Amino acid sequence: MTRAGPSEKQACQSEGCLFPAIAFAQYCWFHLESKGEWLSNLEARILTGQNLGGANLARILFKGIKFGRARLSGADLSGARLIGADFHEADLAAAQLRGCDFRQSSFSRLQGSGANFEGALAAECNFEYAQLADTNFSHTDLRKARFGGASLYRARLDFAILEAADFSTADLSFALMGGAYASTCRFDEADLSRSNLVGTNLEGASFTKANLFYARLGRVRGQGANFSQARLERAVLREADLRNVRLADAELKGAILERAILTGTDLGQVNLDQANISGAVLEEKVPG
Ligand SMILES: [Zn+2]
To answer: How far is the CA of 136 from the centre of ligand 1 (A)?
Structure first.
């Protein structure tokens, strides 16, 4: 007897339905009658380590299923509801996760390279030590999410909501974060070299000891951000709003600060060798 693998999509058997059937069923989630039975069946497959790569799990309302170590590379979970889910050490590489509701879920040590989280709700999620190279978080709600120690090399975070998220020690080199809303975000000791943060809101964000070598920060709104001991060598800060920014012991050698606003910012201990500050609004902070 041959059985269809989880990745072979067939049409839902309900008359007139245009959705494909979900994995291990003949119906889409909406038309599936024995939902509870199907969910416990899926849970058993995950527990036994079955490879669910490429499975169609779209638009499913999951409740209380544990996805720890689940093998879901290339699976389609788009539009699924997974609030508070546990995906620790799971494999979601190249998975389709658009528009999922993942609020307060755990993805610690996830393999999520190349996954597509576009437009997902992922506030307060834990992505610590996750592998997220080339992952797409464009327009994703990640407020208060935690990414400590995660690899986000070349990840897309443009127009993401990152308010109060924690990227301390994460690898964000070559990441695309243009237009993101990252106020009060923590990037302490993170690698943001060659990243693109054009137009990003970084008000009150913390970049202590961060590596921003050759990062593009043109037109950022960085009022009150902390760049103490940060490496901003050759960083492009053209027309950036850097009012009341902390730059103690920051390295700005060769940085481009044309037309940047630096009022209220103390440049006393900053290395500005070969930096371009033409047209910048500078004002030494008067002690006392
Ligand atoms: Zn259907």
So the answer is: 29
